[in-house]
Design a protein that fits this description.
The structure is a homodimer.
Chain A lengths: L7 H6 L2 H14 L8 E2 L1 H8 L3 H14 L2 E4 L3 E4 L4 H23 L4 H17 L5 H16 L5 H18 L2 H4 L2 H18 L4 H23 L11
Antiparallel strand pairs in A: 1-3, 2-3
Helix pairs in contact in A: 2-4, 3-4, 5-8, 5-11, 6-7, 6-10, 10-11
Chain A binds a DNA duplex (30 and 30 nucleotides) through helix 4.
DNA sequence: TGTGACACGATGATATACGATTTCGGATAC
DNA sequence: GTATCCGAAATCGTATATCATCGTGTCACA
């Protein structure tokens, strides 16, 4: 999907700010810069062989996305993405994605449905020799296929933003709760059938939302059984 | 709510980037910088008596919020906020705010409800000598009172962000469709009663969402009767 | 021995300067 | 008369330098 590596060809056309942006983002994604890590302008600038100015700008961009926290006259550090943030983002995503899916439902062609079902088929196959990372990737593809035609581009932006927010953490969702995967693909098929049968948009939205919050619930029960009911359900 | 003016006292403690940020934002809000306006770094820097660097940073911040568009080696211009954007943002807000209100409902105290009802009372009073601007301000206060205790801070951020996005345009909503105001305050009371009676969260969410999308619908019918059904309802 | 203040080092914030890119206008050729 | 090409001006992108601020260690004093 997202290429975080730089080829020399791209380097020529990309502004240094963006080079720095991708470089830092890559480091964060690969856990090289773990949460709480202190991002020092000078060091990064030296590492990338550029001035501090582009680095600074890159960091402010990352700040806007919520990946790093910034404190005046102190500097930036990688955001603490503790479970709390993960939960809140997942719940937000359930709401956004549910709505986006409903807003896209009536615009999906039979081809779109078929493609989504194909992806879900791939997911079922991987259930044998389970690879959490690949499964999560396919999962995203599946849902993207459903909401990408959302009639409201702003909603789409919000969904994408929330996915990006979860980016450096989402790889692991299904590795925590392997049992959830099988249930997940069944719910996918259910959502597809709702869309095909032109079910009320409210139903589609509810199904899509519950599908994601069920993943969150499974995660919570698995990881934090004592506070699994911290977030109200709908 | 949001103070866009700078007092000299604040000027001392605010970083220049943030001064520039507020200044530009204020100009955009007050329509002094109308959509399409070319934001020239040097000119703004000269105007504010600072270097271009803080101005640049401010503009990038505004870009992240979607208020300005940026093109490499060309510069920034104020985003075109045509009706389309307004509609999409309003619909997104209806979804976000509806969910946030539901997520806050169980946490509201009787005091909170009373305060909200008080605000709604003020709105009813202003119906006599109708002032669209004041009414819209109270409207925001009312809803903020309901969703501000949202259990999910991320949702709150998203709601605030969407409000900000509508900022420079929202003043006019109710001036377009004065008739909508009376209906609006009735719906407010309805929402309050749902919360008081501990209605199912789904009901509360639906009511809050429909309340806002009804405002959007009224606006659409009034302004663009020919394409009023462009956005699917829920 | 503990606590406070002061000073020094590290880092971010801003200013100035220069180089790169784009845009726009005019001149020339067809 | 129109299209194209070239050049100058404007503006952005980046580097270097200086100033302001914060964190921390140390020293003096209670």
């Amino acid at each position: 999907m997202a290429r975080d590596e730089l080829t020399s060809a791209e380097t020529a056309t990309l502004s240094k700010s963006q080079q720095a942006y991708r470089w830092i983002k890559g480091r964060i994604a690969s856990q090289e810069f773990s949460p709480g890590y202190r991002l020092v302008l000078g060091s990064i600038a030296g590492e990338l062989d550029m001035s501090v100015v582009p680095v600074r700008e890159a960091i402010r961009q990352l700040e806007a996305e919520g990946l790093v926290m910034f404190e005046r006259n102190v500097g930036a550090r990688v955001s603490m993405v503790d479970d709390t943030h993960y939960r809140f983002s997942m719940q937000s995503l359930s709401i956004l994605e549910g709505a986006a899916t409903a807003l896209a439902a009536r615009r999906l062609t039979v081809d779109d449905i078929q493609r989504a079902r194909h992806i879900n088929g791939l997911m079922i196959e991987t259930l044998e020799h389970f690879d959490p990372r690949a499964f999560t990737g396919l999962n995203q593809d599946f849902h993207a296929a459903l909401y990408e035609k959302c009639a409201n581009p702003r909603m789409l932006d919000l969904v994408h933003g929330e996915w990006a927010r979860l980016g450096h953490l989402r790889d692991s969702t299904f590795s925590f709760v392997p049992g959830r995967a099988a249930e997940s693909v069944r719910e996918h098929e259910n959502i597809l059938q709702l869309i095909e049968s032109s079910a009320p948009l409210g139903e589609i939205e509810k199904a899509a939302r519950r599908h994601r919050s069920a993943t969150l619930d499974a995660y919570m029960i698995h990881e934090h059984p004592d506070e699994a009911l911290g977030l109200p359900a709908f």
